[in-house]
Design brief:
This protein has about 325 residues and is α/β, with parallel strands linked by helices. Helices cover about 30% and strands about 25% of the residues. A hairpin with a 5-residue loop joins β2 and β3. α2 crosses α6. The two termini are about 30 Å apart.
């Protein structure tokens, strides 16, 4: 194996978290207790934090495995006698797995068993349909439903609220639930939480949209750093660095993953981009050609619908941009 290939192989091992024989953790197996069930709440290199049935945290080493646990995985572990450490034995089959591409490490798993993505938006950052559509494409490619949560609603006057509501109606009309909240003051947050009961959700959104503020409101006893909007750039200042799972109640969990701020789409195929625009994907069945890209093909049902106003102009324009440039859309 050449030097460059060895380096690539070593890097892939580090990314996937596979333990070699040399760096296996020193664990006295005689001190390990019986197998227990828990859930992965965070990961730090070759170790994971697992919450047990009482939601006490156990720092567990990873055994050599082809797959690596991520936040949200339901796990079996053994704890060391009289210590808050242990060994992860295995994790259960996943109901879903959210992934994202990274600049140097290929496709990286983000969170497992997610029932829905709560995508936070905020006024200061400038509401962008293009950014929103990119999130939706990434989520739809993982077959994970999305709820839109517009935070900092209290900062807008009535005229601004009307404009935002009109723009978001496009998404409401194609089936995306929308909530308008103020995490800082708790406005409408209880209504959102009520609808989230029994689900495992992931919070996504740009830095500065108020994810940490929302978590702080929901978990007032936690020490959570909150981010302000930079006066120089107008962008959110980044705070948290590691994905973390929080427990709302016995059946409701919230995952904050700071890596999910923007999704690169270069790893997707044309079909995935189309699937991300649910109204376009549905109408595509009526196109003359099965491989129609809905750009300028004859007999295209999508273009006909766009011309008649049945598809919002912003959506068809964003679709055209992404279908022709998504391989360059990488962050």
């Amino acid at each position: 194996m050449g030097k460059k290939r060895k380096q690539q192989h070593k890097k892939r091992q580090n990314v996937e978290g596979v333990l070699s024989q040399d760096n296996q953790p020193k664990v006295d197996t005689d001190t390990l207790g019986p197998e227990e069930q828990g859930i992965v709440i965070s990961r730090f290199g070759q170790q994971v934090d697992i919450a047990d049935q009482n939601f006490n945290t156990i720092r567990c080493f990873l055994r050599r495995a082809k797959e690596v646990p991520v936040v949200g995985d339901k796990a079996t572990f053994q704890r060391q006698d009289k210590l808050d450490t242990g060994v992860l034995v295995k994790f259960e089959e996943r109901t879903s797995l959210l992934k994202r591409p990274t600049p140097h490490h290929g496709i990286k798993p983000v969170a497992a068993n997610i029932d829905l993505i709560a995508l936070l938006l905020a006024p200061e950052l400038g509401f962008s349909e293009m950014l929103l559509d990119r999130y939706l494409v990434a989520a739809e490619s993982s077959n994970i439903p999305v709820w839109l949560v517009f935070n900092k609603w209290d900062l807008l006057d009535d005229e601004q609220k009307t404009v935002i509501q009109q723009r978001l109606k496009t998404y409401q009309d194609v089936g995306y639930p929308i909530y308008f909240i103020s995490a800082k003051h708790g406005d409408q947050v209880d209504e959102l939480v009520k609808d989230l009961r029994g689900k495992q959700l992931l919070l996504a959104g740009q830095s500065g949209v108020g994810k940490s503020t929302l978590i702080k409101y929901l978990f007032p006893d936690l020490e959570v750093a909150t981010a302000d909007i930079s006066e120089n750039s107008g962008l959110g200042t980044h705070t948290t660095t590691a994905s973390r799972l929080y427990k709302l109640d016995d059946d409701t969990y919230l995952v904050d993953s700071p890596g999910v701020r923007e999704f690169g789409l270069w790893h997707l195929e044309d079909h995935d981009i189309q699937q991300g625009f649910v109204e376009i994907y549905k109408l595509a069945e009526n196109c003359k050609f099965r491989d129609c890209k809905h750009i300028k093909e004859p007999g295209c049902a999508v273009l006909a619908a766009a011309k008649s106003g049945d598809i919002a102009e912003s959506r068809i324009n964003n679709y055209h941009h992404l279908i022709q440039n998504y391989d360059q859309q990488f962050n």
